[in-house]
Amino acid sequence: MKHAIRISCTRRNLKVVRDFVSDFLTNQNLSELTINQIVLAVDEVVANLIIHGNGEDESQFLDVRVQLLNKEFSIELEDKNLTSYSPSSYQEPDLQEYVRIGKKGGVGMMLVNRIMDRVEFTTHGTHNLCRLYKNLA
Amino acid sequence: MKITQHATESTLTLSLDGELDASSSVLLDTELSKPEILRNQKVLIDCRQLNYISSAGLGVFISHLQSFQDAGVKLVFFNMQEKVHNVFEILGLDSLMTIVPSEAEAEAI
Fold first, then answer.
1. What is the ipTM of this complex?
2. Which Pfam families does this UniProt record tie to the protein (chain A) (predicted)?
């Protein structure tokens, strides 16, 4: 099975990544709910990297690599860009306040943090790497 | 994402078919932003064919909920698949929004 893909930074490729992750997880004896949660967490980070990290510039690429080792799923998302996306100042949002003010975005990383066990963002120069981990045991 | 509309005198039903993500949610936002939608007493969202929702899709509903409430329009979801309902549950949105199992129950609200 192919464990890595490269996509250009357009929203149209969100489904490509979702299908890639879903196909990888399908034969791992996981529930539909668990697969959907992991696919969702990956989709949220990929959307942020495409839209905020790379400004939907289709000439930019995102490398996606998945791995399952000792019942731990991990995924690496790598791009080369001067603008790094790293939600280091992340605070859990107040959803009732979001409803009150009609806020459209801002709950993606809340989903990611609630679904995945670990989320890491690292940057070295123009080299940005995001790693997500989930124990499937 | 395909959105099919069915309107009666006081109720608009939107049937969502496909995947609601950061790419397709713009279409839903356009539908929910139309001023005439607030003339309905109820807007029912049929989720039977909704196979996936991300934060972008959730954000569209979050962003319109208050204006619907202010206008006295009830927003009700029904026929939601378990994996989609689970996404609402992860954020606790199932307690902020009205989600019922069937169309009959949605119409009865």
1. 0.92
2. HATPase_c_2 (PF13581)
Q: Which residue has the tokens 């963002």?
A: A121
Whole-model pTM: value is: 0.93
| CATH code: domain of residue A75 | 3.30.565.10
Contacts 24+ apart (CB under 8 A), B33-37: B33/B64, B37/B12, B37/B73
pLDDT digits (tens, 9 = 90+) for B44-83: 999 999 999 999 999 999 999 999 999 999 999 999 999 9
- Residue A87 lies in domain: 4-135
Residues of chain A in contact with residue B23, where contact means CB-CB under 8 angstroms, are 11-12, 14-15
Q: Does B62 touch chain A (CB under 8 A)?
A: yes
pLDDT surpasses 70 at A90: no
Nearest Cα residue in chain B from A35: B83
Could you tell me the domains of chain B? 2-108 (3.30.750.24)
Picking from A15, A51, A107, the nearest residue to B58 by CB comes out as A107
